[in-house]
């Protein structure tokens, strides 16, 4: 059976957010101009993140405690998968790094290629990307692409869209932090899913990265080891 055509009525946005009271209302409001359904998942913030998201008019799921970006995404997936009208789920960050106005690019990529998963690609224009991030993103994208057996030009981009059938698969993952986004790619590739790319902008403003350099780097290499082991057993 062919994949349904992605459009604003059957694509739902999922915005994981943690201490994003400054940006979430603007991001959610702009996303709602592109899609009929937007869900913000507040990962245990103690500021006004939830209140600001509700002020934008979107749906809000509040986690009692901070459990990590991956855990927040999985909680949102469970909520959205319970809605029959949702055929695709699109994830974007709540800090303003992803432009909601570029959501149609994901529709186009999915509809033109038939790929069940589309990942944003910022690497075609890295002039405004900090040098360290540019090098890190290129290295990680090259490494992860080799491990999963499929080229993904920007594996570190959290701006992505996928069919609900993949969302159900993602709920089986072990990861709960930022490493969850990498494991999503591995699961998609393992199921034989084609992963397409949609060109998106590189946006850096006053947001503060929530990635812990040491802890999350160690998690990344542990995940790579686990993915390589799983691949060898297939």
Folded structure, characterized:
- With 234 residues, the chain is an alpha/beta fold.
- The protein has one domain: Spore Coat Polysaccharide Biosynthesis Protein SpsA, Chain A, CATH 3.90.550.
- Helices cover 42% and strands 15% of the residues.
- The protein has eight helices and seven strands, in the order βαβαβαβαβαβααβα.
- Strands 3-2-1-4-6-5-7 form a seven-stranded mixed beta sheet, with helices on both faces.
- The longest helix has 21 residues.
- The two termini are 27 Å apart.
Summarize the model shown.
The protein has 234 residues and is an alpha/beta fold. The chain is built from 8 helices and 7 strands; from the N terminus they run E-H-E-H-E-H-E-H-E-H-E-H-H-E-H.
Give the topology, please:
Layout: E1 11-17, H1 24-32, E2 37-42, H2 49-56, E3 59-62, H3 69-81, E4 88-91, H4 103-113, E5 117-121, H5 131-148, E6 160-163, H6 164-170, H7 179-190, E7 195-199, H8 213-233
Parallel strand pairs: 1-2, 1-4, 2-3, 5-7
Antiparallel strand pairs: 4-6, 5-6
Helix pairs in contact: 1-2, 3-6, 7-8
């Amino acid at each position: 059976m062919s994949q349904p055509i992605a459009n604003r009525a059957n694509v739902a946005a999922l915005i994981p957010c943690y201490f994003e009271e400054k940006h979430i209302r603007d991001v959610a409001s702009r996303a709602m101009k592109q899609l009929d359904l937007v869900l913000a998942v507040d990962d245990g913030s103690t500021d006004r993140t939830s209140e600001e998201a509700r002020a934008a008019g979107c749906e809000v799921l509040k986690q009692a405690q901070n459990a990590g970006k991956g855990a927040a995404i999985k909680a949102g997936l469970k909520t959205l998968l319970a809605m029959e009208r949702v055929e695709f789920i699109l994830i974007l960050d709540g800090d303003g790094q992803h432009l909601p106005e570029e959501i149609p690019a994901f529709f186009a990529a999915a509809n033109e290629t038939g790929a069940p998963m589309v990942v944003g690609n910022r690497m075609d224009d890295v002039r405004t990307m900090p040098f360290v991030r540019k090098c890190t993103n290129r290295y990680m994208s090259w490494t992860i692409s080799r491990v999963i057996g499929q080229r993904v030009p920007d594996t570190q981009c959290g701006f992505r869209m996928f069919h609900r059938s993949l969302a159900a698969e993602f709920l089986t993952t072990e990861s709960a932090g930022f490493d969850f986004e990498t494991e999503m790619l591995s699961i998609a590739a393992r199921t034989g899913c084609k992963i397409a790319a949609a060109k998106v902008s590189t946006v850096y403003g006053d947001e503060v990265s929530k990635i812990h350099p040491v802890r999350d780097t160690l998690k990344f290499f542990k995940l790579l080891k686990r993915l390589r082991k799983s691949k060898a057993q297939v």
